[in-house]
Design a protein that fits this description.
Mean pLDDT: 82
Shape: globular
Oligomer: single chain
Number of helices: 9
Distance between the termini: 21 Å
Structural class: alpha+beta
Length: 326
């Protein structure tokens, strides 16, 4: 699997990062419920097939200005055949550098047989006279080369192996040293079932976690692993000392926020049917020694999983152009 398809699959997996049943039991679930939830979230990013619909709403209000992003779409991951799809349609509004007006977008990315990449929604950026819905074809190897050309030193990091993103290795490293450090900073409960689904609510104490020894220790392993040969050890050490101060400030700012994960699991199959992530945060400038109104951030990401089956098919578009003339 090449650079972009692996990145898309990694994004999908990170939405429902796995956690061991022991952590959920410690967080408040019964032993049986802990096993049910952890099993539903135990996803292998290299082999997992998935078909889902999603919506994403984000807003940030600060200094009298509001930036918002609204999007929804569908995703399919079919690693057995090397196929994937990700669509996103919505609008961005309130960005000062873009004039503040609502700017709609409608993008879709398809990968076929691992190597063939098709993108819709960017043609007019290449040529303003082109139909924005025109499909563009690119070899996936080229996207890897283009990405690495923009950041050639990335090949010296622990993220790239043999010219490709090491998704399994990256996910394992993140899960062990980043997500795993949440274990002592969450509460979990099973609330009333909804539509026959077991409903779990997990609340994260993000403020406490950001200032925790567990996160600090995890980052001491994670950062050198990701940096690889790109950054000298003494620079990493100096950066980690600065990061400690930043995390201390972030811990204080995040303390009053709400960080809730809602999971809906089909009890008989043990499969995840829906996941909703809700974050809400208000930052008072006075905490930073400044004046002004509080900055308010709200985010809701909702993912609803379809049964992967005959309709979970990704095909190449019939009409496309190859800008490279292949």
């Amino acid at each position: 699997m090449k650079f972009l398809p692996k990145s898309i699959l990694l994004l999908v997996v990170l939405l429902v990062s796995s956690a061991c049943s022991a952590a959920f039991e410690t967080a408040g679930l019964s032993a049986d419920d802990a096993v049910l939830l952890s099993g539903a979230l135990n996803v292998d990013p290299t082999t997992a097939s998935a078909d889902f619909d999603y919506s994403f709403d984000f807003s940030l209000t600060a200094e009298g200005e509001t930036i918002s992003v609204i999007t929804n779409g569908r995703g399919i991951s079919d690693p057995a055949n090397g196929n994937s799809l990700l669509s996103m349609a919505g609008e961005i509004a309130g960005v000062p550098d873009l004039g503040g007006a609502a700017l709609p977008y409608d993008l879709e990315i398809r990968t076929i047989n691992t190597n063939d990449l098709y993108i819709r929604g960017i043609a007019s950026l290449m040529d303003p006279s082109m139909d924005p819905n025109q499909w563009i074809y690119l070899p996936a190897d080229m996207t890897t080369q283009m990405a690495l050309a923009q950041a050639p030193m990335a090949e010296s990091t622990g993220v790239i192996q043999d010219g490709q993103v090491d998704v399994a290795g990256l996910y394992s490293t993140l899960n062990d040293n980043f997500f795993g450090s949440f274990a002592n900073y969450m509460t979990a409960e099973r609330v009333d079932d909804m539509d026959g689904m077991a409903h779990f609510v997990v609340n994260l104490q993000v403020g406490d976690w950001l200032g925790s020894d567990e996160l600090s220790a995890g980052l001491e392993t994670l950062v050198p692993a990701l940096a690889g040969d790109l950054v000298p050890a003494e620079e990493i050490e100096a950066s980690m000392m600065q990061a400690g101060m930043v995390l201390g400030m972030a811990s204080m700012l995040a303390e009053s926020g709400t960080y809730q994960l809602d999971y809906f699991v089909e009890p008989n199959s043990g499969l995840l049917a829906q996941a909703t992530i809700t974050f809400a945060l208000e930052i008072d400038p006075a905490m930073l020694g400044e004046e002004g109104d509080p900055a308010v951030m709200d985010m809701v990401l909702d993912v609803q999983f379809r049964a992967f089956g005959p309709d979970s098919v990704v095909v190449a578009p019939e009409d496309f152009i190859d800008p490279m003339g292949g």
